[in-house]
Amino acid sequence: MDSPSAKKVNLILVGSTGQGKSTLGNFLLKPDMDHLWEEKDRTFQVGEDRFSCTQQCAVSTSADGSVTIMDTPGLNESHEKDLGYMINVVKTAHVLGSVHAVILVMKTESRMDQTYKDTVLYYQKLFGADTFAANLVIVHPDFKKSSKKYKGHPDKIQRILQQSSEDVQNLLGLKDAPPVRCLNSLPETDQELKEQLTERQQILQFARANLAAAPLAGLRVPKTEAVKAKHSKEIARKEATQAQLTDQKAQRMKIPDSARERLDSINHEIKEQKSEMERLNKHLAAYDTDELVEVACVPKVVRAGMGKVFEFHLRSPVTIRDVTYSTWDTASYSETFRSDREVHGSFERGLGRLFHSGTLWVKAWGIKREYFAEIIATLKGSLNEVKQHLRRAYDEKMSLEKEYANGLDLPDVKCLEQQIAEVESEIKRLSEPFFASIEEAEREAQEMLQSKL
Ligand SMILES: Nc1nc2c(ncn2[C@@H]2O[C@H](COP(=O)(O)OP(=O)(O)O)[C@@H](O)[C@H]2O)c(=O)[nH]1
Ligand SMILES: [Mg+2]
């Protein structure tokens, strides 16, 4: 049948009940009339009609070992039972280990109904969007090429394929349109069977071409709609409990209104004083530096034709560190006296330059910190006041907190806090889209069945 050296492939069949998954599985495993038609010979059980089908998840391998197929149940046939079936799917997938192709089984020309969509979307979550996107092929398993309606209408077949591909692409939000294959997995004559073998090979070939089988070991069980509905009710109850407990804790820890108000106003004051301190410090930093600033200046206005020598007396309020003067090529500068805070001297204008006019100047430079000493002293005074203010506020805050802190240490408050934390983690667990473990899912399935009884 298949060449023994052929690469081994794992396939998973997905679709709602009655789409022909089990029949297709049998055909892919062993395309043989007895195997397909004799009930006792079939590998996967086939439903009599759309509604009576086994929901068990089954895995089987072809005689030569080259093809392993996992048949999965559809979803939403019975809300309470779904979860149990899906746990089984995850467990079986763990055993399968990896998958080369996920086959979406869809009857030809049957647009997807809600049950189909629910099923496929659920399995997308279960196997992971990446596995679904990379390894997906749609198969119409009941396609009769010889049927009158297709004969001579290749465009019609083309439209059917395109429609299925688009529908699935939109439903699953896939980047690329998935490939579609058609075959008749329940041929009625040997001749028909023979005709289907090529298509079968092509489906297997598609799976073999996938070099990177998607791993299935880490799969978790997604919550079914029924579980989500149940959990959201539980969450509502837990949230109410949480609110009650939080309220109890607040009551227990309550401090008198007068003290609360005082604490609020202290906190407010601390905030204000801190920003005032910041403002003062910034100001101070601007003045309290070694940089040189102009501390005195004598301007001498010189008109054309007016005198030859211009005397100046420069006095500075702080120690002079440097002297600068205008460099006018028509007048020369000279000093007659210089002390710590004074400079005397003159500018002499050359006779040939009597027609020049303008301003001559002498500037004294001193250290900024010395020049602005008074402002700096005032700023430092204000800063000290602010610091004292802050210290008093902190002291009062501390003593208030100490007085009422006992309330925060009460053992019953501790106990309430623990209860609140427990409810919180329970809410978190209930909000998760997946069960954390198979065991957790099994407990839930058990509970759901029991509550139904
Ligand atoms: N005519 C025809 N009937 C099919 C085909 N595949 C499945 N069926 C029928 O559809 C019904 C459901 O098939 P089954 O394989 O159990 O579907 P599953 O629930 O998806 O596994 C059964 O009555 C099958 O005989 C097919 O290719 N052609
Ligand atoms: Mg079936």
Main features:
14 strands; elongated; plastid outer membrane; Rossmann fold; about 450 residues; metal-binding; binds guanosine-5'-diphosphate; P-loop_NTPase; 3-stranded antiparallel β-sheet; protein transport; 3 domains; transmembrane helix; binds magnesium ion; 13 helices
Describe the protein's topology.
Elements lengths: L8 E6 L6 H9 L3 H5 L20 E4 L5 E5 L7 H18 L1 E2 L1 E5 L8 H14 L1 H6 L1 E5 L13 H19 L7 E3 L7 H20 L4 E2 L9 H28 L4 H31 L4 E11 L6 E7 L6 E4 L5 E8 L3 E8 L8 E10 H4 L1 H37 L1 H21 L6 H15 L1
Parallel strand pairs: 1-3, 1-5, 5-6, 6-7
Antiparallel strand pairs: 2-3, 4-8, 9-14, 10-13, 11-14, 12-13
Helix pairs in contact: 3-13, 8-12, 9-11
The structure holds guanosine-5'-diphosphate and magnesium ion (MG).
Strand content: 15-25%
Tell me the major beta sheet: 6 strands, mixed
Structural shape: elongated
Question: End-to-end distance, in Å?
Answer: 50 Å
Number of structurally distinct domains? 3
Question: What is the gyration radius calculated from CA atoms?
Answer: 45 Å
CATH H-level superfamily of the largest domain: P-loop containing nucleotide triphosphate hydrolases
